[in-house]
Amino acid sequence: MVTGLLTGHNTPRRHRYVMGLISNRTYRKSGTEEETSVQVLYECEALTSLRHENLVSFSLDPENVTHLSTGAIWNFGKEAGLL
Q1: What angle do CA 21, 23, 29 make, to 5 degrees?
Q2: Which of 7, 9, 23, 35 has the fewest CB atoms inside 10 Å of its own CB, making it the most exposed?
Q3: Model confidence at 71: pLDDT above 80
Q4: What are the pLDDT digits (tens) for 18-55?
Q5: Per DSSP, what are the bridge partners of residue 34?
Q6: Cα-based angle 26, 81, 24 (whole degrees, multiple of 5)
Q7: What is the dihedral of CA 46, 49, 55, 57, to 10 degrees?
Q8: CB–CB of 14/8 below 8 Å?
Q9: With bands split at pLDDT 50, 70 and 90, how would you rate the model's confidence at 75?
Q10: Is the four-CA dihedral 15, 78, 60, 65 of positive or negative sign?
């Protein structure tokens, strides 16, 4: 599940939309953009405090994610309602 979140496969709505599993790919938090791993992990302002609480950063970039534990990413995804 964590790998799916990090790679954009499985968890984000955009991927499930592309696979034909759901009919709506918009982001659950805003309803205006595609829900992608990039949006969830790095850009979503609604998840800023949750990101800080679980991933010890208000903002991330791909290089930061490589230093995070699987457990921290799992907790973030779970609390964000993605896993």
Answers
A1: 105
A2: 23
A3: yes
A4: 889 888 888 777 777 788 888 888 888 888 899 899 98
A5: 26
A6: 20
A7: 100
A8: yes
A9: very high
A10: negative
